[in-house]
Amino acid sequence: MAIGFGVVNLLLTEIIGPSRKGEVKGKTYESGMEPIGTARRRFNVRFYVVAMTFLLFDVEIVFLYPWATTFPALGGEQGDPLSIQFLLRMLFFILTSIIAFVYAWRKGVFRYD
User: Most buried in the list 3, 5, 34, 80, measured by CB within 10 Å?
Assistant: First the structure.
């Protein structure tokens, strides 16, 4: 289904999209003036690393929130092996994320000198 969606979007783009292609159509337009400089701008790699770290913890919250809302309903009695298993799995997941954060911190990822 996903492949079909992608193929349909590509076909619709070719059918509905602009049909006249040329040098003038491919040029950049900046308020009717000739562009100054290049459109490609280099960014410091640290911005990408911070963005990836944000995504890491964002995904962690996506997994942590549903677990936290359903965890009280999982184990009926104290010491239930199933609830202890789910707790240990989530603690391992959180510990792994904390270790990754501390590693990035010590490597100086969040330092802007």
Answer: 80
